[in-house]
């Protein structure tokens, strides 16, 4: 499988997915959930229920790790004592933080009503992350991008907590 560079991968904000229905809500989404092969193993996390729910809304895909210049596929990484390390013991914190910063810039530019995220990722995890031991154990916590986006006031939604529909009234909309 060949690497996907951040040049060849569509950048957040460059693509809009619109369907027939009038656009009601803007949603930034972890790109792997849309079926993009940007996951560490070269695959994706395509989520059919999410795709159905997104119909008629404006969708802004984002992959912080690709934006950070990391190749696909890549060695899996976890947050170890506050730094992102890959399974081979290499510190990849800088690339993860650079990617989170670029993804946050895109969110600030796009002002999505919601950001829907892939669970457990060291970038996108919104509720839980792996504990840094590479043994599959989970702890409460957030990935680097999810943390930054929440601190900036964006509303995060773990894809495992999808509502039946995205509410139209947005009283706390940061826009
Ligand atoms: S960084 Fe986020 S969008 Fe990219 S592959 Fe990982 S979970 Fe998916």
Key features of this structure:
alpha/beta; disordered N terminus; about 180 residues; globular
Write the layout of secondary structure elements.
Blueprint: E1 26-30, H1 48-54, E2 58-62, H2 64-67, E3 77-80, E4 83-86, H3 93-110, E5 114-117, E6 128-130, E7 138-140, H4 144-151, E8 156-158
Parallel strand pairs: 1-2, 1-5, 5-8
Antiparallel strand pairs: 3-4, 6-7
Bound molecules: iron/sulfur cluster (SF4).
What do you see in this structure?
- With 175 residues, this protein is an alpha/beta fold.
- The protein has one domain (26-161).
- It is 21% helix and 18% strand.
- It has four helices and eight strands, in the order βαβαββαβββαβ.
- It has helices at residues 48-54, 64-67, 93-110, 144-151; strands spanning 26-30, 58-62, 77-80, 83-86, 114-117, 128-130, 138-140, 156-158.
- The radius of gyration is 15 Å and the shape is globular.
- Iron/sulfur cluster (SF4) binds at residues 30-32, 38-39, 63-65, 118, 121, 123-124.
Question: Whole-number radius of gyration?
Answer: 15 Å
Question: Main beta sheet: strand number and arrangement?
Answer: 4 strands, parallel
By DSSP (H or I, 4+ residues per run), the number of helices equals 4
Mean pLDDT: 88
| Strand order, largest beta sheet | 2-1-5-8
Percent range for β-strand residues: 15-25%
Q: Could you give the distance between the termini?
A: 40 Å
Catalogue the ligands.
Answer: iron/sulfur cluster
Uncertain residue segments = 1-10, 170-175
Please provide the ordered H/E string of secondary-structure elements.
EHEHEEHEEEHE
Helix content: 10-25%
* DSSP, total strands: 8
Tell me the number of structural domains: 1
Assign an overall shape. globular
Structural class estimated from helices and strands: alpha/beta
């Amino acid at each position: 499988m060949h690497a996907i560079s951040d040049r060849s991968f569509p950048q957040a904000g460059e693509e809009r997915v619109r369907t027939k229905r009038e656009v009601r809500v803007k949603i930034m989404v972890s790109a792997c959930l849309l079926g993009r092969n940007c996951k560490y193993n070269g695959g994706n996390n395509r989520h059919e229920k999410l795709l159905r729910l997104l119909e008629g809304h404006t969708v802004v895909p984002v992959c912080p790790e690709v934006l950070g210049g990391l190749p696909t596929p890549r060695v899996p990484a976890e947050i170890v004592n506050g730094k992102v390390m890959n399974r081979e013991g290499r510190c990849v914190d800088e690339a993860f933080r650079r990617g989170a910063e670029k993804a946050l810039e895109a969110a600030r530019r796009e002002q999505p009503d919601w950001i829907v995220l892939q669970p457990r990722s060291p970038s996108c995890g919104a509720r839980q992350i792996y504990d840094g031991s590479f043994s599959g154990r989970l702890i409460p916590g957030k990935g680097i991008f999810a943390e930054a986006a929440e601190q900036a006031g964006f509303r995060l939604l773990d894809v495992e907590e999808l509502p039946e529909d995205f509410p139209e009234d947005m009283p706390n909309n940061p826009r």
